[in-house]
């Protein structure tokens, strides 16, 4: 437990959504709400299922190649996305 969580627990209240969003955005530069994260994980699970089911059984390296192709395609549709991934 962090010092901040201990303080909130001592006062008997959890941080509000706004407080949580602010802390996460400050620490990581972005905030993904739990519901949106859940949806993102569902999409990732579907993508993984598509990659590993069927007649073609890719290796881990081939899965990485498939994901690189997807990232490349996203970069073509959104140049800002491609620039961010190239620099960071």
Instruction: Work out the number of β strands.
Output: 0
Global outline? flat
Average pLDDT, all residues: 82
Main structural class: mainly alpha
Word description of this protein:
With 88 residues, this protein is mainly alpha-helical. The protein contains five helices and no strands. The radius of gyration is 19 Å and the shape is flat. The mean pLDDT is 82.
List the helices and strands and how they pair.
Blueprint: H1 3-11, H2 17-28, H3 34-52, H4 60-77, H5 79-87
Helix pairs in contact: 4-5
Please outline what is shown here.
The protein has 88 residues and is mainly α.
Please supply descriptive tags for the structure shown above.
mainly alpha, 76% helix, 0% strand, flat
């Amino acid at each position: 437990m962090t010092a901040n969580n201990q303080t909130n627990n001592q006062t008997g209240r959890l941080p509000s959504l706004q407080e949580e969003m602010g802390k996460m955005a400050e620490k990581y530069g972005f905030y993904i709400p739990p519901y949106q994260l859940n949806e993102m994980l569902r999409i990732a699970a579907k993508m993984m299922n598509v990659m590993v089911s069927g007649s073609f059984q890719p290796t881990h390296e081939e899965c990485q190649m498939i994901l690189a192709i997807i990232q490349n395609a996203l970069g073509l549709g959104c140049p800002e996305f491609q620039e961010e991934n190239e620099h960071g």
